[in-house]
Write a structure and sequence with these properties.
This protein is mainly alpha-helical. The chain is about 75% helix and about 0% strand. The chain has one domain. The chain is built from 15 helices and 2 strands. A two-stranded antiparallel ribbon has the order 1-2. Helix 3 crosses helix 14 and helix 4 crosses helix 7.
Length: about 325
């Protein structure tokens, strides 16, 4: 007899209903709904809301802080906090190949990706930024295939084409800011760095995520500081209370609190379920960018953005309806 996987609640309910156990099916639906209203779900919502304002806050920080120096302050403060947390929880630093991989994760995921994102956000609207970054889960599938860690299926390819078309439409529908092709390519390269960083760490998934993040933030901060020096930026501190609050939000709210909440959710949900935050965050960003930054959102941009999010969901996040055989 073929029995659906337990996590496919709607399939299980249909199966039970056909067997005449409708009450049990309804009970399982209600239990599933009640299980959603938990601290884990609240933490997931917090992750989406907290990270939804990142790109808007970064653009606001340019008012007082030079581009790369602002990123250095953000990740530098986060690095100090992460080292303190690592010491409090008595986390161990990885050694050997694991340490080198953690360093590479920082080079790609923090140093490279953040430098490119901060530079591209000088002209690219926050809303477009969030849409493009949301393709990271889809890019991860392709890089995992190139590293021979996963197989590539037809759905992933279709999702990639949908996302690529959505980016082109959203780009054409952007009316806020000076969106140059070079800045757009830099942002796409940042997404590539983030995806590759995740794939690089895949064989070392058993490592302490707090230790890995601490190492990554450290090497990434050093990289961004070097870029700031090369760019000839003046290192200054925020001069207004508002800018201090923006820096605190970026350093503590997103880089530390958002990260810890993400780990909390990831420990209790599946990785694919947790990854849905990447699709939901742009929706929050678009609202915040429109309300606080005055970014104009056109229907063409909305269509392109939905196409990107749909492609990511279809190609990388949509659960498969798998079945197992059970002997009776």
């Amino acid at each position: 007899m073929r029995v659906p996987y337990p996590e496919e609640s709607w399939v299980l309910s249909l199966y039970l209903a056909k067997k005449g156990t409708l009450k049990l099916a309804v009970f399982k639906h209600w239990s599933g709904f009640r299980s959603l209203l938990t601290l884990t779900f609240a933490a997931f919502v917090a992750v989406v809301v907290i990270n939804g304002g990142v790109s808007v806050a970064v653009r606001f920080s340019y008012v007082e802080l030079p581009t790369f120096w602002g990123a250095t302050l953000r990740f530098g403060a986060a690095t100090i906090i992460l080292w303190v947390l690592l010491a409090l929880f008595k986390g161990k630093i990885p050694h050997g190949r694991a340490l080198l991989t953690s360093l590479l994760f920082g080079v790609l995921g923090v140093g490279g990706a953040s430098s490119l994102m901060y530079w591209s956000l000088e002209t690219i609207p926050a809303s477009l930024h969030s849409i493009i970054v949301s393709v990271v889960p889809l890019l991860t599938l392709f890089f995992a295939f190139f590293h021979r860690l996963e197989t590539l299926n037809r759905r992933s390819v279709i999702g990639a084409f949908l996302a690529a078309g959505g980016v082109a439409i959203a780009y054409g529908g952007t009316v806020s800011g000076d969106v140059s092709v070079v800045r757009l390519l830099a942002l796409l390269l940042a997404a590539v760095c983030m995806a590759e960083a995740g794939v690089v760490m895949k064989p070392f998934a058993q490592l302490n995520p707090l230790a890995v993040s601490t190492i990554a933030a450290t090497v990434g901060t050093v990289m961004i500081a070097v870029v700031s020096i090369i760019a000839g930026e003046t290192w200054v501190l925020p001069s207004t209370a508002g800018m201090w609050w923006i820096l605190i939000y970026l350093a503590v709210g997103t880089s530390v609190l958002g990260f810890l909440l993400y780990l909390y959710v990831l420990k209790r949900w599946t990785a694919s379920a947790t990854s849905y935050s990447m699709v939901l965050i742009p929706l929050v960003t678009v609202v915040i960018a429109n309300v606080l930054a005055g970014e104009q959102i056109t229907w063409l941009f909305i269509i392109g953005g939905l196409l990107v999010l749909g492609g990511v969901w279809f190609g990388a996040l949509m659960p498969r309806r798998n079945y197992i055989d059970e002997k009776t």
